[in-house]
Fold:
Amino acid sequence: MSVYRTAALLSQAIQGLANVVPALCETFTLPEPSVEGVVISGLHIRAGDAEGSRNGVLLLGGVHARELMNPEAIVDLAADLLISYAQGTDLTYVVPGTGAHGATWAASAIRVMLESLDIWMVPCSNPDGHDYVLSSDDMWRKNRRPRTGPTCSDGTEPVGVDLNRNCAIMWGVIPTNGEISCDPCDYQVYCGPAAFSEPESKNIEQLLSEFRIDTFADVHSYDEMVLYPWGHASSQTTDPAENFTTLPTGTCSPIPDGSYREYIDPVDLLKLQSVGAQIVSDVANVRGHIYSAGPSIGLYPTTGTNPEYAYSRHIVDQSAHRTYGWTIETGPFVGTAPDSFHPSDPSQTILDTKAAMLSLLMQSVCAIDLIGTQVFGSNAEAARDQLAGLRNRRDALWESNAGRAWLELYRQLHPTLLGRIATDEVFRSHATHLVETAAFLVSNPDSVLSDDNIRHGLSLIDDLAAISPEYLRPQLQTASALFQTMSGLNAEAALAVVLEQSPS
Amino acid sequence: MGAAAGLSDTVGGVRLEATIHPRRSADLEALRGLDVLPPLDGALHVLMSPSQVAEVVAAGYEVRVFAAHPIGPLDPSLIMDDATAQAWINDRVAKIRSGRKS
Structure:
């Protein structure tokens, strides 16, 4: 079964897609060619209006050369998205006979994704290593940097750098039992002579700097895991001062304090846990494989990885955009390592992988942003200001248990909400009115919710309750009852009410 | 030097897939340079050369080899040829075009 394309054929595949729908997608060239001079290309998918800032998602594959399934999965997903959008058909990933009912995204949801996100895909970020696997060594992992150091003790030349150890996040620090090495002769996990010494990893840095990327996923194999920061130490949420910016890098030794734990913003941690749980659930619907979600140190300790670098950028530089960084480890162990990295029939694992990426895309869509774009039209600056006020109030919800319960309810309603916005004009009109009102109230502290505002809101909640999963309806009834008490309240008073009373 | 020579000494040879189990030693240095895979049944799971097996055993570990893989390129039958790749593109392009016409 011929299933794995060369790097050149992967590039041809995305070019072929871009050629047929130039209004929906275009290829782009990464700033740096590979060590061996190969031009690296990606695909940018964006439907709908050309103007305006959107949430951005970057999907990266092929960082580790031998993990051949993932470049194929990313190219395949691009085609699926474009076909679904063009034909107006649902996307369902299911393996018959497994008892799983399938992971389905409605055509309306796909439309919302493509019309409200900037989707950046780099299927094969390490083309030299990729082709070396096909031509010479099927277990090669690194790039093909020639002669990275003096001749090795066995007389061979050291070749290659691990591109998922080369980024400027705790670069060159070797955690106890860590899978990273400062030894150029290390066959698999040499971190390189300096952070971002390699053009292939420098490309990731430049993409993150140039584009607004809210969600970044680096797709690897094999294992069935959904991983988020941190990888170099256990996490803690109580002491922001205990963070990686205070630690030396390039030491080729462990963090000096063995009890060190890395700070992670508790709001971010909740979001990562919540999104991770949804990815696990969506993947399980394909064929019943239950991925595990957790901090990446759970696989093994690492430093210098792409997703953690992506997430760390806003901590190092507060003006940098906050990017949630993910590693998706796809595919089970199937008896031997070669068969697990590049099975003769990867089709079922590719379905899992596509479901994981689609889940992440769906959860990267911000329904409020989507409605706000309609409210404020092409006036991007007004939209940004108004929506920033709403986001501040949303962030305040994380401060209480009740507030977090409301956010969790919103997260669970999100797919239904997006689908309704895309397909029902009356619903969209009510939602638009509500967001407009909320933005006005936030900007005008003396203004209050009118009876008319309440009626619009209740209509929206009733509509959602009618089409939402049964188990969410009691919470929506609570929302409805609470909203009826808010007439005459300004934004701060309304927020205080929801911070006090949980929907569940 | 532990196992730091890596698998480069086996080019043209064989790569062994194994799990490693502590016996009398916890000499972690001896495990450096192995190609570590996700754990297998809770055990350290690696690819290693025959000389690395000898070094790790000498350092006090038990090595259970369960597969041997010749070092070489990917099975050519798994590599997509140009015609199949073009057929893939043609199929997807046709589906996209059919949707845009309807």
